[in-house]
Design brief:
heterotrimer, A mainly alpha, B mainly alpha, C alpha+beta, B: mainly alpha, 8 helices, 2 strands, about 60% helix, C: Alpha-Beta Plaits, three-stranded mixed beta sheet, two-stranded antiparallel ribbon, about 15% strand
């Protein structure tokens, strides 16, 4: 095991600047979409009085929970003292800040009155989980920046582990808080479940790691820095574990709902009759986001090949978007149970006439706004790794720390 | 022309040492922005002395809005409806001109000072109470009450 | 010294008002209550306080929790096909002034325009019995929309009216996610020509506020109630739930009624009979 050397990302300037240019262009288009939505009002979006949160919220929530998950690698390295992950800690912290920034930006630009953000910053209602989240998000940002400092600066070394501990606890609170935005809503059947909190934590682990792995592999390959098979095996197994945990929570959530007669209607709709939501649930959430990546990651031959692992990561991300689309939008589209035992024949406000679900289709500005947020996250990351020493020079097998499982094989290890 | 006068008036406010003389000279012009026959037309100043109104009106309405929205208090001295009622102008056909237009009482000053005026994004910019006569409207706006308070204010 | 007198005044005034409240319990009329209150207050407070000596005077004291406004809807009297209450609400609160944006499809507009009160027609799955009723903000005692609002823009007034302070609303729509009655609307479009009594603008959430301007000006009922009476149906009763002698309390005492989504234990201010 050698000393880990961190170095700036030294790809060719023209490649760096064209990457930056593309990201800036996507951000610019997102900004235009924001201006258009705010100038015209939200009627230019597909969002309406039945489905009040739409595509921007899918993007925002995905980015926010991925931010929390991306920090996982740093936590494992510092808090749980797994030395092999140590070289990845810096990138993990940077990605966490960048993703959170992107997500918050989308959330804020979708407000009906974004110019009143100062009101949200100065007037609080502490019975609202939303108000708490404002602190959780800004606090997270501060803690992670402190964490990065403690990793990068020699003077920060003694604070490294305490800060990492705080960051770990904070990030679990943050994801639980984000999940609870939905989990505390008694009004809507699909949300009224405390399991949403832990489920969001599991999802954050999976999506955050998938994003992290993609960024890591891309930046390393682009500059020709080596990632050894041992490191890949570690990350790959971790991703597979997190994806299975998401599937486990999904199963539990739906089995619980199926057990309760009052949720039969919802489950029947979501699992069989929900149109786009049923499709996204089975194909997006379960297949692309769960079973297929698991199959690749555990396949004895495919999981040896880097591009298959990249494909698995991409699938987890696509599946993640599908999952959040179903969780956020599908749950609103299903009519609220105002009159159990009655069928609504007519309504002046779409209360689910004859059990019909509410209509929602995202419009172009919404999607561009969301993509703008993704681009913001990537831009921060790109600039960060370029100008500061975030990336280790090598993750080759002879550089990274030895696996603890094989420690006893090493002559210098203590006898078990 | 009217805009120029308003500007002149505003510059006068800024220059405190000449304000006294200039304001006296312009007092007649400022009256142009008060509805003829409204309560305010008979007054020397608004619900507070003019100087105070110019500097503080936003504070007055801001505090008022809290007690109106949260406590239901409507019949008080400060009121945005009151601003509109007394300071609106009408065109030749007696149709009120929105008060936030850049040549009107609120709009002109806000345009000049480049301060965003967004009250009327939501609030009515013309007196607009079908079925209620102007007198009643003025009473609702609390103009009756503030005649006296205005004078009290000046007495101090 | 002056301050002490003032405080004394306030004390006397509130005593006078509670006295008036008791008086109203006898004659039962709201207008009567205000008249009496104004009379008693005028007689008892120190000189110098200006009062508007008109029957329907704008309120000059903060609302108190001595009253709780509510509605009782007798669904047996609600007529299929009648939408008088919906239209009256639109006229009263300027919702009829909403215009569809040019490029907006009709289908989207129907989902995006503001609706404060709507008619719903139900059929019992077992018995086939059909019920008509209006739905609006239920003015809960424990409103979920107030709990979740990050800025406190969604609030409950002391007299039980749940409403939005549009000055504080940032348009996050979390309250709409939380409301079990789908009572709230988000203003998707720019607005123009608003009514003085009902300010409303793009980017905020709004809902039924029991005609709060009427409450503050001491009027007797709401636009929907008036319209229902004018149609001759009298399916909606408005009044003070805390006053045992008010028509609404008396009727609640007489006929069976329930809250929608009673399971959430929100203690709604709007009650339904015959569902």
């Amino acid at each position: 095991m050698k000393r880990i050397v961190y170095r700036e990302w030294r790809i060719a300037p023209q490649r760096f600047w064209s990457l930056l240019g593309i990201l800036a262009a996507v951000i610019g288009v997102g900004a235009l979409a924001f201006g258009y939505m705010e100038h015209q009002g939200h009627w230019v979006t597909g969002m309406n009085n039945s489905v009040v949160w739409g595509a921007p919220h899918v993007f925002a929530v995905f980015l926010i929970i991925s931010a929390s998950g991306a920090l996982n690698i740093a936590s494992i390295g510092t808090v749980f003292r797994k030395p092999i992950y140590k070289p990845l800690s810096r990138l993990s912290g940077l990605l966490a800040v960048a993703l959170l920034m992107g997500g918050l930006l989308v959330l804020v630009t979708d407000l009906g009155r974004p110019e009143r953000l100062i009101v949200a910053m100065t007037t609080y209602n502490f019975s609202s989980i939303f108000a708490w989240n404002i602190f959780l998000y800004t606090g997270f940002m501060v803690i992670v920046i402190a964490y990065l400092w403690s990793m990068a600066d020699r003077q920060g070394e003694p604070f490294n582990r305490p800060i990492a501990l705080v960051a770990l606890v904070w990030r679990l609170a943050l994801t639980t808080g984000t999940g609870s935005i939905f989990g505390f809503l008694v009004a809507r059947q699909a949300y009224d479940a405390a399991i949403l909190g832990p489920m969001f934590v599991a999802m954050s682990f999976a999506y955050g790691l998938a994003v992290f792995m993609l960024v890591l592999i891309f930046s390393f390959e682009d500059e020709g820095r080596p990632i050894g098979p041992r490191m890949m095996r570690r990350l790959r197994n971790l991703l597979a574990l997190f994806v299975s945990v998401v599937l486990y929570f999904t199963l539990t959530y739906h089995l619980t709902n199926l057990y309760m007669a009052k949720h039969d209607g919802l489950e029947h709709w979501l699992l069989f009759n929900g149109g786009i939501y049923t499709f996204l649930f089975w194909v997006g959430w379960v297949l692309i986001g769960g079973l297929l990546p698991l199959w690749i990651l555990y396949h004895p031959h495919l999981n040896q090949q880097r591009h298959w692992i990249v494909a698995a990561c991409a699938m987890v991300i696509v599946g993640g978007f599908a999952t959040l689309y179903v969780v956020i939008i599908g749950s609103q589209a299903f009519p609220m149970p105002m009159f159990p035992g009655q069928t609504i024949l007519e309504s002046g406000f779409f209360d689910g006439v004859n059990g019909e679900s509410a209509a929602y289709w995202p419009t172009i500005p919404e999607l561009l706004l969301g993509l703008g947020g993704v681009a913001v996250a990537l831009l921060i990351t790109t600039v960060g790794v370029r100008v500061l020493q975030f990336l280790p020079e090598s993750l080759a097998d002879d550089v990274v720390a030895p696996d603890e499982e094989t420690m006893h094989d090493q002559p210098f290890a203590k006898p078990a | 022309m009217a805009k120029a006068l308003v500007r002149a008036g505003l510059v006068a406010v800024g220059l405190v040492w000449v304000a006294f003389a200039t304001n006296t000279a312009l007092a007649g012009e400022v009256k142009r922005y008060v509805v003829e026959g409204s309560r305010a037309a008979e007054l020397d100043s608004c619900v507070e002395p003019t100087e105070r109104m110019r500097r503080m009106h936003m504070e007055f309405i801001k505090h008022q809005r809290i007690s109106t929205v949260h406590e239901g208090i409507r019949g008080t001295k400060y009121s945005l409806t009151g601003c509109v009622d007394c300071h609106i102008s009408y065109d030749v056909e007696r149709i009120p001109k929105p008060i936030n237009q850049p040549d009107q009482f609120c709009g002109a000053c806000h345009a000049y000072t480049a301060v965003d005026l967004n009250c009327f994004d939501c609030h009515a910019s013309v007196p607009n109470r079908p079925g209620v006569d102007a007198d009643r409207a003025h009473r609702e706006a609390g103009v009756e009450g503030l005649v006296r308070s205005g004078r009290n204010g000046e007495g101090h | 010294m002056g301050k002490a007198t003032e405080m004394n005044d306030k004390h006397t005034r509130s005593e006078a008002e509670s006295g008036a409240l008791k008086a109203s319990a006898i004659d039962g009329g709201r207008r009567g209550f205000i008249g009496v209150a104004a009379g008693v207050t005028a007689a008892m407070v120190a000189p110098g306080v200006i009062l508007h000596a008109v029957a329907a005077a704008p309120r000059s004291q903060p609302v108190t929790s001595d009253v709780r406004w509510g509605l009782l809807i007798d669904t047996t009297k609600c007529v299929d096909g009648c939408s008088a209450c919906v239209e009256a609400c639109g006229r009263e609160n300027g919702l009829d002034l909403q215009v569809k944006s040019e490029d907006e499809s009709e289908a989207r507009w129907d989902h995006q325009k503001s609706v404060w009160i709507r008619k719903v027609k139900l059929q019992d799955n077992q018995t086939g019995r059909v019920t008509n009723l209006p739905m609006m903000c239920q003015h809960c005692e424990h409103p979920p929309c107030v709990d979740v609002c990050p800025t406190g823009a969604s609030f409950k007034r002391a007299d039980g009216i749940v409403m939005v302070d549009r000055h504080l609303c940032i348009g996050c729509r979390y309250c709409m996610m939380a409301c079990p009655y789908k009572a709230r609307s988000f203003i998707h479009q720019g607005t123009s020509g608003q009514l003085t009594r009902a300010p409303r603008g793009k980017g905020c959430v709004e809902s039924c506020n029991l005609c709060v301007h009427r409450r503050d000006n001491g009027e007797e009922s709401t636009a929907c109630v008036d319209a229902c009476v004018a149609e001759g149906h009298e399916a909606i009763v408005f009044g003070d739930l805390k006053d045992p002698a008010s028509p609404i309390s008396r009727k609640l005492n007489e006929i069976p009624s329930r809250q929608i989504r009673e399971d959430l234990v929100l203690n709604t201010g709007v009650r339904y009979s015959g569902v």
